[in-house]
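Provenance

Sequences were taken from public entries as deposited. Structures were produced by running a predictor on each sequence independently, with no templates supplied. The record for Putative HNH nuclease YajD from Levilactobacillus brevis is shown for reference.
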Amino acid sequence: MAKIMKQCNHAGCRQLVPYDVRYCEKHQHNANAETYHKRMYGEHEGRYQQFYKSSQWRKLSRKFLENNPICVQCYQDGVIRKADVVDHVIELRDDWSRRLDESNLQPLCYRHHNQKTKQARETRLKEASIKNGGKA
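Predicted structure for Putative HNH nuclease YajD:
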């Protein structure tokens, strides 16, 4: 059975690609480079990306996970599950000064970390919307 095809997402490109692929081979590299550039050099994003790549953070998070190997949210739900991520209780965007404060860290599994991050992002967007007078 043939796959459903669509046009490449690059503006003006008429190359057909499988429906589950975003760009043709010619434009895939451009898309990856653009995403990387936004992530690394965006207005404020670069600061966070550089921090998470720093040796200070890597050492601290590795040591923290060794000492706290269980997801605290799963444990509260009565399940013992391995923690995959060291999470900042108060996010870096909200208080940069607490980025290396161990009392601001908690071990989470990917599921709970993603839920918390999504909720914090939505809260931040709502607050920004309120500050702008309801204009998002």
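The chain has a mean pLDDT of 88.
The CA atoms of residues 110 and 118 lie 12 Å apart.
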